[in-house]
Write a structure and sequence with these properties.
This protein is an alpha/beta fold and about 300 residues long. It has 9 helices and 12 strands. The chain has a 6-stranded mixed beta sheet, with helices on both faces. It has a 4-stranded antiparallel beta sheet with strand order 2-1-4-5. Strands 7-8 form a two-stranded antiparallel ribbon.
């Protein structure tokens, strides 16, 4: 189990005289929970998602983003002194290796790269980065000595080809991918297509959920993954999100404008973001009230209290 703790987070656009977007965000998301983050356009929801992931377009000016690990998240037990990580000190790839996943609102199309190759490469990159993060000094020294001893010979086994590179080989990954796609009710033909190329909007969003299922994150931040979906694809994507929580144990931060996805992905907590901070939190009933009454009443309530 893991917990993402965001404390008094302030962030601005990373350019000279960049606009301040986040003004003190406080939020906790734990494994096995679904949090819905709602709010009007320009309130800072997508900025928060990108800051968590380490997007270089934003600069943190105050506060912290911490990932707490209980110690049983990975195959090997995590040492006590490696169970708390300041994500702001880490690169995006290191955050991903620890279990942070960002599902994009507008996934990129990449011609020439098949989904199966992309996903296996991503999984192996995560596992390799994860191993490096948790490697202690004695292991690093032993690895350096081994590398030096092998320098005069083959860098890898002469029997090893590109298809076998990485911890997860092709045959093993095909089985993993098949299981995940069946769980998400996805057509296996998707795997041989180029990444998002020619995909419908709904197919792209379903592919984002598949990527999360393959990478098995501790915390998945899904940025408006419901936008542009028809009712059938919305149900497919929602089933995938529920599977991430129920079967993979992931914590979900679901950023959305609309209550409709929450009919299929029932949140444990709903948060309203206004003016760069979380202004109000509640249960699933809060989302229904927002759908009926909008955000003005929240703004009035917050400023009357202030």
């Amino acid at each position: 189990m893991a917990t993402l703790t965001i404390d008094n987070l302030h962030a601005e656009v990373a350019e000279e005289n960049g606009e301040q977007i986040l003004h003190g965000v406080d939020l906790d998301v734990s494994s096995g929970e679904i949090h819905a983050l709602m709010g009007p356009n320009g309130s800072g929801k997508s900025t928060l998602a990108k800051v968590i992931a380490g997007h270089p377009a934003y600069r943190v000016t105050d506060g912290s983003v911490t990932l707490h690990l209980d110690g049983d998240e990975y195959d090997e037990e995590i040492p006590d002194d490696m169970r708390e990580w300041d994500l702001l000190d880490l690169e995006p790839n290191e955050r991903a290796a620890l279990g942070i996943f960002l599902g994009f609102q507008y996934p990129a199309e990449i011609e020439g790269v098949t989904m199966v190759n992309f996903l296996r490469t991503a999984l192996n990159a995560k596992l390799e980065e994860q191993e490096e993060l948790f490697e202690d000094e004695e292991e690093e020294e032993a690895e350096e000595e081994s590398t030096n001893e092998d320098a005069a010979g083959y860098e890898t086994s002469p029997m090893e080809g590109p298809a076998d590179e990485g911890e997860v080989g092709v045959a093993e990954f095909q089985q993993i991918l098949q299981e995940k796609m069946e769980r998400l009710d996805m057509d296996e033909k998707f795997a041989s297509r180029y990444l998002n190329a020619g995909f419908s909007g709904g197919e792209k969003k379903q592919n984002e959920v598949l990527q999360a299922a393959i990478l098995e994150p501790e915390i998945a931040v899904l940025d408006e993954i419901d936008s542009g979906l028809d009712i059938d694809r919305l149900q497919d994507v929602s089933n995938g999100i529920n599977a991430l929580r129920d079967e993979e144990g992931a914590g979900i931060l679901q950023i959305t404008h609309y209550q409709r996805i929450l009919d299929y992905v029932e949140p444990d907590h709903v948060h309203v973001m206004l003016d760069g901070k979380v202004a109000k939190s509640g249960g699933a009933e809060l989302a229904e009230q927002l759908e009926d009454e909008g955000y003005d009443w929240v703004r009035e309530e917050v400023y009357e209290t202030a």
